[in-house]
Amino acid sequence: xxxxxxxxxxxxxxxxxxxxxxxxxxxxxxxxxxxxxxxxxxxxxxxxxxxxxxxxxxxxxxxxxxxxxxxxxxxxxxxxxxxxxxxxxxxxxxxxxxxxxxxxxxxxxxxxxxxxxxxxxxxxxxxxxxxxxxxxxxxxxxxxxxxxxxxxxxxxxxxxxxxxxxxxxxxxxxxxxxxxxxxxxxxxxxxxxxxxxxxxxxxxxxxxxxxxxxxxxxxxxxxxxxxxxxxxxxxxxxxxxxxxxxxxxxxxxxxxxxxxxxxxxxxxxxxxxxxxxxxxxxxxxxxxxxxxxxxxxxxxxxxxxxxxxxxxxxxxxxxxxxxxxxxxxxxxxxxxxxxxxxxxxxxxxxxxxxx
Amino acid sequence: xxxxxxxxxxxxxxxxxxxxxxxxxxxxxxxxxxxxxxxxxxxxxxxxxxxxxxxxxxxxxxxxxxxxxxxxxxxxxxxxxxxxxxxxxxxxxxxxxxxxxxxxxxxxxxxxxxxxxxxxxxxxxxxxxxxxxxxxxxxxxxxxxxxxxxxxxxxxxxxxxxxxxxxxxxxxxxxxxxxxxxxxxxxxxxxxxxxxxxxxxxxxxxxxxxxxxxxxxxxxxxxxxxxxxxxxxxxxxxxxxxxxxxxxxxxxxxxxxxxxxxxxxxxxxxxxxxxxxxxxxxxxxxxxxxxxxxxxxxxxxxxxxxxxxxxxxxxxxxxxxxxxxxxxxxxxxxxxxxxxxxxxxxxxxxxxxxxxxxxxxxxxxxxxxxxxxxxxxxxxxxxxxxxxxxxxxxxxxxxxxxxxxxxxxxxxxxxxxxxxxxxxxxxxxxxxxxxxxxxxxxxxxxxxxxxxxxxxxxxxxxxxxxxxxxxxxxxxxxxxxxxxxxxxxxxxxxxxxxxxxxxxxxxxxxxxxxxxxxxxxxxxxxxxxxxxxxxxxxxxxxxxxxxxxxxxxxxxxxxxxxxxxxxxxxxxxxxxxxxxxxxxxxxxxxxxxxxxxxxxxxx
Lengths: 355, 603
Fold this sequence. Notes:
Number of domains of chain A: 2
Structural class of chain A: alpha+beta
Mean pLDDT of chain A: 87
Mean pLDDT of chain B: 91
Number of strands of chain B: 12
Largest sheet of chain A: 6 strands, antiparallel
Number of strands of chain A: 13
CATH topology of the largest domain in chain A: Dna Ligase, domain 1
Low-confidence stretches of chain A: 122-131
CATH architecture of the largest domain in chain A: 2-Layer Sandwich
CATH superfamily of the largest domain in chain A: ATP-grasp fold, A domain
Radius of gyration of chain B: 25 Å
Shape of chain A: globular
Radius of gyration of chain A: 23 Å
Oligomer: heterodimer
Low-confidence stretches of chain B: none
Strand order of the largest sheet of chain B: 5-12-11-7-8-9-10-6
Helix content of chain B: 40-55%
Shape of chain B: globular
């Protein structure tokens, strides 16, 4: 695709990371490592930068930012709303819109897609910036996609995002944004997997939260998901807690949106994953951990339209941040008794006595 | 808990089952809880070792617990001076044995450390050469035992003995050979423990280290890291598989499959190919058929070499499966690759600082571990097999002379009483008078048999008296897997519903129909794909492990035979469920989760 504005996932190289943001970079990396990822493309930061320069948008935003008092909540809300409205109503430069529409058309006829922000400051291991920007699910039609891309850009200026950047001393206008346009998954089950136990930091475990439908309800905490624990090395399911999954988020093709619906009584309390599926999800997460060289937080879904064995898709993989930071804190150097001294120690203080 | 009530009953309040009131006559005084020592004995916690001795002892067989546990103790107490632990005291009550570890007084522990370091250190530093020497000692013991003869007394002392001026009669060798057999067995059991305690200690050091670094690592994962796949314990089964392949290759499979063992061997002898196969069969027999379908601790154990129909049954089953194109081999390469993968992946999860310690402790554990597995063949199977065979020969001699009506009568006498019977036999032979034994023993044996049958109607208590607040005794934990948690689970043993919990001893999840077995004699009932449910298994059940889908046992821990065999055969196992074999019925559908230790009855 001969445009600086678009990069399909299978063409994103590590040199492009600054232009596609964390989420798209990860999707690109996974795609190129052969991990099953729904196809799609990144709208690069070049497009966003071009938009800012187009007809003086950047100047206007800067003027509005001058009125910002980040310590004043009401003021921040007002400034944010003004900027968002300004961006949403700003025309997209024609070459960018055309590039997006062309790339979208190449995915298939009126394909339902997810449009997600992929900010360059988001998802960094030490900046829990995730979820600050918008995600639009089940978007259908080229004009809609273009509109949602622009909405994503506008979401850089929500009050939360502005306040966060002010607190973190990040420049308000310097943060560039890329947008991911990705084939929508018709998720039967979806969830989040950590390649460590998030409550203990135990790296020998993989912990899976899973619920019916799309994963957004798991991430936002609207449902109590099933919670599975897998022993990472033996790859054995060692614990299953079945949640009461009363709602599911599913696509509605006619409305071009997702809808939340009640889950019937029987499905609510039955496991949403078989043991084989739990192991498949854990295997995927373990692979991503190995690929990335550190514990991962993986979003995934099982697509109802794909055959068994090919239906598990990775939606996102990013480094786990909480325990990574704790680990970095200096730990006293342990000493170990070896040989006979070790054996004497073990005999004098056997394991059962330590508990 | 109420201070007045102990968690487990006192042996002094545990009556004998009806018909077994006189059980105390069967065992020597030092094996029983003495009335005048009640206060002292009740102050101790005793746990039942039903893992090694699940059935009430015949008087002669009590020797196995005496020699085994005494010799275990001597290494801690007198050879190695294990700092915190002496041996394990033991008693027989209502036919079952109960153990109580003997602690070292805390103020003496420190002084034992340097002695232990020097003595045990010598063993660890010279492990391989000392093991080599051990094999020689054990083999020479076996050879000497094998050479012992028990011959009926002749009418007259041989003329040549007169002419050479020997000056001794035929009773001399009879009595000496009996004493020699007992002494050789005593030596055997000392050798048994020469390395075992140290082997477990090194393993436990590695185990404890990993549990410290990775607190939630499953026990079975640690066991998998050190376990070998070429243990001598699996040789008998591997030999049968080789013989099955050979029979098919030589085209004599149908002949091997036909008739009794004798029929088959006679038919095979008619062809060159058959003779070739017989040669391989004979070669495998010595020593690998010195293999019991029990655990070696009972005179009732059946050894393959004396019951060739047992290995032949397994062998025929293997031939059938080879002919059906099935792969009967243990997946040894897969198991080794899996062991390496598991080791490498857990090593990766360790702190870099802990890596060196991991490698060191793993190295030592892997050095010592083969002994922990292999010794079982050389002692419990081979040595004990020869011993029991010799003792059966002696019992048979007495039986033929009219001392008892059944061939196995001698095992209802204690080992000291057998000396008495031998003297009686030689005494009247010498005086020219009449034996007393044939008038004394038949009814006494009958009485004892009835007592033992009555004892067997009641299972043992898991323990006696009150456990210590925390179990700290290393050998209780290491050898019997008894921890404070385990004791709690015995108390709450009345598990309800359709779920049983035990130890996750070998990984995997399967469903299948149950086959509940109480005796190795019923092993032939097992059908392909069934889940074996049994109080306790022995390594010699290995041939059925190629057929079954999983194992569930009442007794045993991570290092129990069932656990070791299942891991080596790649089958799920849940051990130590307490009540599995009584709650589960043959034919019920089960789900066995060897990862979590849960067994679910699905019907």
